[in-house]
Amino acid sequence: MAKPDNISLLHTLRNLRKKNQTTDAKQTNCTISAKTVKPVDRCPTTEEDWRKAAVVKNCSAYASLCNDSKTYVYHCLVNAYVNQTVEVCAIQINIVGGFCPLFSSFQKKLQSNYETNCTIFPSKPCPEVYISYKVYKFPDCFQLKMTLATTTESPSPKPYSNSLSISDIETTTNRNIKKDGNAVIWTYGPIVLAILLLCFCVLVGWLIVTGNWRKYLRPCGTSTEINATAENPLDGQINEEKRDPNEDQALLESISETQGMMKA
Predict the structure, then answer these.
(1) Pairing status of strand 72-79 against strand 99-104
(2) Domain check: are 17 and 133 in the same one?
């Protein structure tokens, strides 16, 4: 059974949510808010700085253009892409659930950023419920993401959920596979190259030691006879020197006799 304190807190949260829904309906008619958006380098982080910035912005000059002019006040917070801090005149809302606020230029209203839980900030955490313009008390809500907007339409914040969808799991898995694949290439690429180089060196060494490298370097079109002549270029000359002179003389006499018989 729930304790009385918890029941009271639940009733309070429900009432605040209903009030926010009513306020949101009025915000959609306050189109002037989108025209008051101005990018700034930093937002106030103290009440005094917030008051000074509010005086300069002078949101009261536009309050008459909104249905709820009493709650149309100065805000400084992040945009819907969480990549820029902006100051804007908008109707204040109650931030319920311990989230940071943001301003959507497309929807022309303040919203809770369900992706940022400010109750867990190590420095200056936010309470479960607070008024939107008091975000200056929680400077960690001004932390930006270094992303660029790809469309002119501001995105709507995603509903808060502790569960992951199948598409989220598949996307994460694919990213991990790509990262792991790159890691494998960088890790094993040099090893494979080193093994191939080592095998090449071993092959060259084996050819040199065994003498088989000669046949791989021999020009095409050679034969055993050509090689034999190249190795012994003086063989023909030696054979000429070994011939008997008497044999030459007998050959000449035989030729002379043959010529004499032909003349007779």
Answers:
(1) parallel
(2) yes
**Is residue 236 pLDDT above 80, yes or no?**
no
Q: Clarify whether residues 220 and 155 are in a common domain.
A: no
Token pair of 71, please? 């709650």
Contact 93, 132 (CB under 8 A): yes
pLDDT in tens, 170-197: 444 454 444 444 444 555 778 888 899 8
d(CA 162, CA 38): 34
Residues 63 and 81 in one domain: yes
Task: Write out the residue range of the structural domain in which residue 195 sits.
Answer: 171-258
AA identity, residue 42? R
Q: How far apart are CA 209 and CA 220, in angstroms?
A: 23
Q: Which two structure tokens, joined as six digits, stand for 237?
A: 């000359």
Question: Do 85 and 39 touch, CB atoms closer than 8 A?
Answer: yes
Q: Which residues are CB-neighbours of 32 under 8 A, at least 6 positions away?
A: 62, 65, 66, 89
